[in-house]
Amino acid sequence: MPSPVPFAPARRLLDDDLLEAVRSRAAGYDRDNAYFADDMVDLVSSGYLRALVPESFGGAGLGLRETAREQARLAGAAPATALAVNMHHVWTGVARYLHDRGDASLDWLLEEAGRGEVFGFGYSEAGNDLVLLGSRTEARPDGAGGYTFHGRKIFTSNSPGWTRLGVLGLDSVSDDGPHLVHAFLDRDAGGFEILDDWDTMGMRASQSRSTVLDGAHAPAARVVRRLAPGPTLDPLVVGIFTTFETLLAAVYTGIADRALELAVAASRRRTSMKNDGAPLAQDPDIRWRLADAALALDGVWPQIDTVAGELDALVDRGAGWFRATAGLKVRATETAKQVVEQAVRVSGGSSYFSGNELGRLYRDVLAGLFHPSDDESAHSTVAQSLLGPLG
Q1: Which helix (H) or strand (E) holds 183?
Q2: b/e string for 103-124 if b means 16 or more Cβ within 10 A?
Q3: Do the beta carbons of residue 255 and residue 245 sit within 8 Å?
Q4: I want to staple 122 with a disulfide (CB 3.0 to 4.6 A). Which of 44, 150, 153, 301 is the partner?
Q5: What DSSP string runs through 3-31?
């Protein structure tokens, strides 16, 4: 096992006034199934989308651990906004991951993010449980080193806001193929349609709409990898996996932090006729329920800090990073769901109303079940690390 990494105090980019403004809009966005446009304006103005961009590229220079902490704070104010912004942070985090390890292949992304471009994540596909290891999307070579992409991506968060979209497709026609092609599209270049199909029970403001690729073109300069399908330790894939899982864990843990805060406040506000009007905070069963939620949540933050801190410190776990970060994501999202449910039980029937903040958090936290790695995939990853591949 690697030695523990010492942590410096985390820096912050999101001030309390900004977070309160974001919180004040969250219920309206959720009710109207509307995009978080005003939140995005505030976050861009604050420099938050440049959090992971090194100072030499015009960014704030925060590490992954610091950004994870900020993402949790943002998620506590507006989970859907945090989830959508997460996808931009994933790409700047991947570019930072490569840059810090001497790979300049995504330095152009850091430069563009430093100038204000917004990156989206267009990898998810219906029925594709291979995720980074396969694709249903066709990547057709253009004869000049670039590709056109043809297929349908789902859960494309921040669909109205991205200006650059990372995509994955399969080149099955080149003589040296097949290859998985990782590339980036420019919104202004077209060749795609964003469907108005996002009407979900939670994470509504993220507007994670489906994207139909119909000849969207990535020139050679924006093709960042051609990799054989299947498992790989290519730094791009490791960077995507570890950054994605760590930041997702932070978002859902931030939701749980806020739910526990709301539940504690509710226990002090609600009273019991059975106990002569005493607040529920004096009820032993309620106290146990809140303590149980806190105990579960207290076990997640040290893991987030350790994983993110070791990634910042360039600790090399090799293939062990897949186990470490898949386990982190599943533990964080499952714990968050349990904490929010406990908070709902403490807070009572008012949380069942659609406009209630805790009720919204309950709907939002369920989305954690659907992000990769899911529970089955994570267990498979850990089993393989312990027992080797299936014979």
Answers
A1: strand 179-186
A2: eeebbebbbbbbeebbbbbbbb
A3: no
A4: 153
A5: PPPP-PPPP----HHHHHHHHHHHHHHHH
CB atoms < 10 A from the CB of 270, how many?
A: 16
- Interhelix angle 284-298/235-269, rounded to 10 degrees, is 160
Which tokens sit at 372? Answer: 């990769």
CA 1 and chain centroid, separation: 27
End-to-end CA distance of the chain: 28
- Cross-strand bridge partners of residue 148: 140, 217
For 286, 290, 300, the CA distances from 296, given in Å and listed in that order, are: 16, 10, 7
Beta strand residue intervals within the chain, DSSP E: 119-122, 138-141, 147-156, 164-171, 179-186, 192-194, 209-218, 223-227, 271-272, 278-279
Over the stretch 9-48, which tens digit does the pLDDT of each residue have? 779 999 999 999 999 999 999 999 999 999 999 999 999 9
Q: CB-based contacts of 390: which residues, under 8 Å, 6+ apart?
A: none
Q: Among residues 159, 160, 219, which one has the least CA distance to residue 185?
A: 219
Instruction: Please state, as a whole number, how many other Cβ atoms lie within 10 Å of the Cβ of residue 359.
Output: 18
